[in-house]
Amino acid sequence: MGRMLIIAGLVLLAAGLAVTFADKLPLRLGRLPGDFEFRGRNSVFYFPLATSLLLSAVLTLLLWLFRR
Question: Which residues contact residue 23 at a Cβ distance below 8 angstroms, ignoring those fewer than 6 apart?
Fold first, then answer.
């Protein structure tokens, strides 16, 4: 249980740092090629497909490494 709390804390710390310094990162999450944005007159529909796939792959790799 303690190990999982430490890992969760490190993940939250990394996410907080990534959000804080997101403007300075070379990879702009949410604005990748493959993220779709459709604008109507009074509405905007945003579908972050490429960002979702990238985050899924990174999280899958991290969870796979921690379970070994």
Answer: none
Residues of the domain holding 19: 2-67
Q: How many CA atoms lie within 13 A of 6 on its CB side?
A: 4
Give the type of residue at 18.
A
Structure tokens at 38: 């459709």
Name the domain count of the chain: 1
pTM above 0.90, yes or no: no
Summarize the confidence of residues 51-68 as an average pLDDT.
88
Backbone φ and ψ of 5, nearest 5°: -65, -40
Q: Which residue has the tokens 């991290």?
A: 62
